Every structure is written in structure tokens, then in C-alpha cells.
Amino acid sequence: MEIRLTNVSSRRNLLCRLEQKGRLMKFYAHSIPGETDQTRWETMTEHEERVATRCKEFLARIDPSLEPWGEVLGRWHDLGKYQPDFQRRLTGEALQVEHAGAGAALAASRSPIHTIPMQFAIAGHHAGLANQITNDTKKLVSEPVTRSTLRERLIQNRDVARVVSKLAGLETLDLPLPELTTWLREERDSDSINRQIDVFTRVLFSALVDADRLATQWFYESSESEVSEEMRTEFESLKVLRDRFDGYVDSLRAEKHSRRSAINELRDLVLDSCRKKASSTGGIFSLTVPTGGGKTFSAMSFALNHAIHNELDRVIIVIPYTSIIRQNANVYRKAFAKPNEGLDLCNIIEHHSAIDTQQAKENNPEAEKRREQAVENWDAPVIVTTSVQFFETLFSDHPSQCRKLHRIANSVVILDEIQTIPPQYVIPITDMIRELSSRYKTSIVLSTATPPALKEHLGEVREIVDDPIGLAKHPAARRVQTEWRIENPTTYEELANELKTNGHQQSLAIVHRRADAANLAKMLPRNHRMHLSAQMCPEHRIQAVDEILRRVKEGEPCLAVTTQLIEAGVDLDMPIVYRALAGADSLAQAAGRCDREGKRTVASGYPAGKLIVFRPETKPPGQTLQDAADASLTMWNLKALEGSEFDVFDPDHCREYFQHFYGTKMLDQHHLQRERASLNFANVAALFEMIEDGWSFPVVVPWPFNEDGSHGEGRRRSEAFRESPNRETSRALQPYIVQVPKQAASILVEQGVIEVMFGSIGIPTDLFNPTWYSDEFGLTFDEGEMSFLQC
């Protein structure tokens, strides 16, 4: 809580107390609860040294010239703890003393402009990054920012900083201020410079927060047992992992060479290109490869070899969908595993909401402990995370989220399915990517089958595969014929009849809405149909995908009806796919689930997979998906006028499509660039929302419902949370949560099916039974209520 010195008298009293008592006291940063022997407490000198050492190390890894910033940040971040009242607080007195702003105020008194990044970082290392001058968000967000601005914090702490600066024996106060880095002294427009200061501030803030938390964690853990001051989990080196990974991939390659095919030739071509280009200097790269072209292995091979060549620290794989992270992470674990180990559970760290932490802890407690430690700051050789986690790390104001940012520097980042970034954030995201690449030793790989039109925003982008247009025309990339049925709507009854009579016992239909998926599936034979949508909790979806894959592999009848959850990354191989009209990238992803291995095409001598694009009787949920479908329709019409056909597999057609799509959108809809240039960090965080979840509410489902009446895992975990709501029991709920519209949640509350805890999550009551959650369709409502379930 902040001290507000409301009158001259209170200020004078504080000054006197500090000046009189300060010279006589020994100052501590941390006490040990219940320990009266102060010789075991951590002194300010010790804490400052530990934080400064780490902070210097983190920043020097990015640029040696930044080391002096780490020194001053570490030495000054806790100057407010020299207040006698804070020292009394450590002895157990119930005092509320704000300490984080004093160092910022001291920096401002020494150099008001030059030290602005340092002021933000120090003042916010507990509360978070603030706005600079005002909290006015121009009514762009529903909840106003309430945190004090930087200017307010400096005023509140000015007197404390002045007196602390007079305390005898504080050599740390004599530190020279660091030089501004060269690129921040260049002559350019002020907004551009300020956005660079925005990133620079975030990096300093991240390094300070990580250093402070590691030092504090070490002190408390070492007070109980012998702990290395490194506070670092040991991982194998990138060189060891590279050798193991490339060896595994080469063994697969040798095995496949005995049965040559066009698809294997395509994958070899991509892999060879990635290994060849890995010795390039850092920058932004594009890996444009048709679906099924082996991006998962090839991108990782590039990243590992590129990181080693350029002395980078880690590889970060960013995936847009939690539904495919498990699959990709397990592919990597298998490749990184030591001989006869099966899966590498040590070197790959997954960070996303779909992790079943409870199951992981039960299966391998040591590996889960490593993961929990590493997700705090991404100090690991290989990170697999979601777009939400990654981009919110870049634009957040919160210490725990920003803590990881300095680890993104000096790394290779694979942005998988780059075309999925929300259009309203294209300009802020590309600007941030460009800055990380040019100033912070971050190599970026834009991985996609359908390249978006981003080069004008990113500057120089180097192609890893020299001829992506030629690659798209490779015989293995031409496995699918596209039939367009978009002049008139197709009803779901008509589609159901075709699925039953098209001559294929295995087919896939992808629709826009959850309600559409459920309604269409119900029209199909019970023993042949499979349903997949976000009405099902993550654990349920995993089992459904596994069952679909099993049926396809074993040649059993499988009429799968899904929302777009199935599209990206799921190694499904169907003879025919029906896709509701959507954006070009979605259509190409749908086609990637069709004749994926090219076996039917090889057998017939022509593209044997079939993608049928139909106009559904319902519209996509949300304006963005509707605009994407409209842009595809525009491209189809334009190409028809030219006497050709819209080819969603052609990179040039895809770029043209994205130009039409982006042309309908505001690429900085929430004016983040303006707020960044104003150094309004809290505003930026409030306005940046990768998942627009204001419409939804999380509901825990008690699935499965066991036939013997015993509680299923979802019920057991919800009861554990009800009895003891804490971080661990909360995380354990994630695999059993369904996001529902708030209107639907209200129905569940009215019916007594859920009770709301803490205003933020619905926990099932005893009335939540199988009539509300189906083993086949997930969360179910009456027909009239199904309209709520969009997306």
C-alpha cells in the first residue's frame, strides 16, 4: 500500500525519523518468519548484491552495454526498505510501508529523462508497470486503470528518496548512471523512439523482476536447507539436444528412403533447406511450407542449429491452439529422448492452460516440479507455449507475466501458423517482433502454409525455402482437388445425407458453430459418427481426437463432425473433407486433413483427396470470421473473372487474400501504438486481449459419469477445489473446464446445476448430471438455448 504524505508536518516527521534512526540501524531486506536471530536475516547489502549480479548477467546476455543498467536496477530497486518503519515491519509490527518507489524517485532526481526506463522498472517491480502521467483510457476499456501513475509514485516517494540518499555508508548511492544505449540516442520521430523505449523498459523490468524473485527465493530456501545460489534447474545443452534431435530425424529419413514417395521427397527438400539456412545471421525468417510438408521437424532443426550457430540460449515454439500443443510437444519429446527412454520429460517445458498438472504430478513428480519452476521465467532450452502466453508476455504490465520477457531475447522463436494473429493487433505485434529481432538478438521464424501479407510491416523477411511458389506446386503438395459450392447455401440436412451416401466410410465435416456441429452429428448414424467441439472439456476432446485417429488408422467407419478445433496440426488423414466457407488459411488447413500422406494420390496418379467448400445455412460467429469468409468469396469471384480459380495452396493467392482481408480491418484497432508511444503500460495491457473472453464464463464439468455411480475425475477435482481453493486445486480444474456464454452460465445457475465461486468460475453441484453433459456432445442445452453456443 502506498504512503500518502498529506501535509507538511507528516513529511517533516518522516524526514526526522529517517535521519535520526537511519544512521544507527542495520538494514535488512528480508526476515525469516518466527526467527528472532537477526544474524540469519538477509541484509540489504546482501540482497542488493544478489539481485544486481543476476540482473547484470541477464542484460549482458542481450548486450554487454546493458550491464550497468542491471547494476543500478539491482542496487536501487529496494531503497525504500531503508525506512525505519519498514525495518520495524520486518520484526512483526503491523505497518504498511510502500518501498518500491524510492529508488525510482532517486533515479528521477538524478536525471528525470535519461532514467525513465529505470523509473518504470523499479517503481513497478511489485505492483506492475504503470501509465506515465494519466490513467485516462479514452473509454476504450470497461474497467478503468486504478494503479497510481509513475508521476504520482515519484511525487509520493520524493521525500523518502531524498532522506535515504543522505544515509551514511550507502555506497550504492554513488553508482554512476548508465549510458543510454546507442539506438535510443538516434535522431528519429518521437513516437518511434518512445515505442523503442517501451520495449527497452519492458526488458529492464523483466530482468529486474526475475533477478529479484530468484534472489528472494534462494534466500528463503537456503534458510531451510543447502541450496545452490545459481537457483537454476540443470538442463542438457542445446548442442546435445540438437545432435539427438537431428539423429532421430535422420533415422526416420533413412527408414522412409526405403519406400520413396512424393511426400517424403517434399519433406526432405524442406528439411535440407532448413539445415542449410540455419547458419544465417539472426533476423526474421519465413518458413512457407504446404500442409503435410514436415514443418514440425524442419522448423525445430532450423531453430536448434541456428541457435547454436548464433550462440542463442533457447528455442521457443509458439502455437495458436492448445488442442495441438500436446501432440507437438510429444513429437519433440520422442525426438529428444535418450536411447531407450521413450520420452524426454526434462528438457521441454510446456506452458499453457491445458496442462493437466495433477496428472503430470502423479505420473512424474520430479518432471512436473521442473516444469513448474521453469514456466515462471522460461529458463529452459526448449519452451512450447501458446500465442496467448507469448504475446501477453510482450504486452502485459504484470510482473509475473513480464518476468519471462528477457528470456525471449537471445532466443529463436518459432511462430507457428503466423496467419492466425488477430487482425486488430497486426501492427503492434509486427512492430514488437521487428524490435525484438533488430535490437534484442531474437530470431523469428514465421511458419505457415498460407503466408499473410506482413512483409510491409516487418521489413526484411528471409525465406528459408528459396522458392515457396515452386514448393507449393510440388506433386506432393497437390494431393487435393477443391470443389466450390458457394453459389447457394447447403443445409445441414443435405450435408448429412451426402455424408451418409458419398461412397466413403470415412469423412470429415468442419462447421463454424458448436450448435451446428451437434445438430449435424445428430443426423448421422450413431455408431459411425464422431463429434468434436468446444462444448467438450479439454480432457474429453483429447479422448475424442484419439478415438477419431484410431478409427481412421484401423479403417473403421468414421463420420467426424467438428468445429475448427481439428484443423491445425492434428495428423488426420481423410479421403474427403467438407469445410464451411471460411478464410483461405482455414480452408488450406482443412485440406491438410485430406490424403495427408498422399497415398491415395500416388495410387491413382492424380490428386485423389477432395475438399468441398460449401456455403452453410448459418453465418460464422463474430465479425472477424465473417470478414474472412467474405474475403475468400471475393477472391473466388476475382479469380473467376480472370478465368482461373482461387487456389488456397498458392502462396501468392494467399497473400492477395490477406490483403483483401486486412483491408476490411483496423490493424491497430485499439490504438496500442499510440498508448505505447505515450508509455502507458497499464493502458496497453488493458487493451491487449488475445482472447476476447468478455462474453464467456468458465464452468467445471463433473465428467466422466461412471456407470457404477462413483465420482469421475472432474467431480473429484471440483470437490477438492471447493474444500480447499488454492493455486494447486485451481490449476487441476483446467482439463475439465468448458467456456460457455454468460447467458448459458446464467441458465446453469438458475437450474442449480452450478454454483459460482469467487465470482469467476462455475463449480458443479449434485444436480449436474448426464442430462447436462453428454459423453458424445459435451455440455448440452435445450434446442432453444443452443443458439448461445457459437464458436
Automatic annotation (TrEMBL):
GO biological process, one term: defense response to virus
Keyword presence, Isomerase: no
PROSITE patterns given in the database record: HD_CAS3 (PS51643), HELICASE_ATP_BIND_1 (PS51192)
Pfam families: Cas3-like_C_2, DEAD
UniProt domain Helicase ATP-binding: residue ranges: 276-469
Keywords, alphabetical: Antiviral defense, ATP-binding, Helicase, Hydrolase, Metal-binding, Nuclease, Nucleotide-binding
SUPFAM superfamilies according to UniProt: P-loop containing nucleoside triphosphate hydrolases
Sequence ranges assigned to domain HD Cas3-type in this UniProt record: 37-214
Signal peptide: none
InterPro entries: Cas3-like_dom, CRISPR-assoc_Cas3_HD, CRISPR-assoc_Cas3_HD_sf, DEAD/DEAH_box_helicase_dom, Helicase_ATP-bd, Helicase_Cas3_CRISPR-ass_core, P-loop_NTPase
Molecular-function GO term, any one: nucleic acid binding
Residue segments, region Disordered: 708-727
TM annotation in the entry: none
Similarity field: In the N-terminal section; belongs to the CRISPR-associated nuclease Cas3-HD family. In the central section; belongs to the CRISPR-associated helicase Cas3 family.
NCBIfam families on file: cas3_core, cas3_HD
Protein name as annotated: Metal dependent phosphohydrolase
